[in-house]
Amino acid sequence: MDEQNFGLAENYINRELSLLKFNTRVLQQARDSSTPLLERLKFLCISCSNLDEFFEIRVGGVKQHIELDIAHITADGITPRDLLKHIHTEASELVAEQYRVFNEELQPELDAQNIRFVAREQWTPEQSMWLRQYFLDEVEPVLSPLGLDPAHPFPRIINKALNFIVQLEGLDAFGREGEHAVVQAPRSLPRLIRLPDEINEQEGENYVFLSSVMHAFVNELFEGLTVKGSYQFRLTRNSDLFLDDEEIDDLMRALEGELASRRYGDAVRLEVADNCPEELVVYLLQQFSLTAVDLYRVNGPVNLNRLSQAYDLVEHSDLKYPPFSAGLPQTFSHSVNLFTQIKQADILLHHPYQSFAPVIDFVRQAAEDPKVLAIKQTLYRTGPDSPIVDNLVKAARAGKEVTVVIELMARFDEAANISLANRLQKAGAHVVYGIVGKKTHGKMILIVRREEDGLRRYAHFGTGNYHEKTTRLYTDYGMFTCDTRLTADAHEIFLELTSFTKVPSLNTVLQAPFTLYNSLVELIDNEIEHAKQGQPARIIAKFNSLVEPQVIQALYRASCAGVKIQLIVRGTCCLRPGLPGISENIEVRSIVGRFLEHTRACYFLNNGDPKVFCSSADWMDRNFFRRVEVCWPIRDPALRDRIADELEVYLKDGQQAWILQSDGNYIPLQGHEPDAYSAQQSLLNRLARASY
Question: How far apart are CA 590 and CA 604, in angstroms?
Answer without folding.
Answer: 20
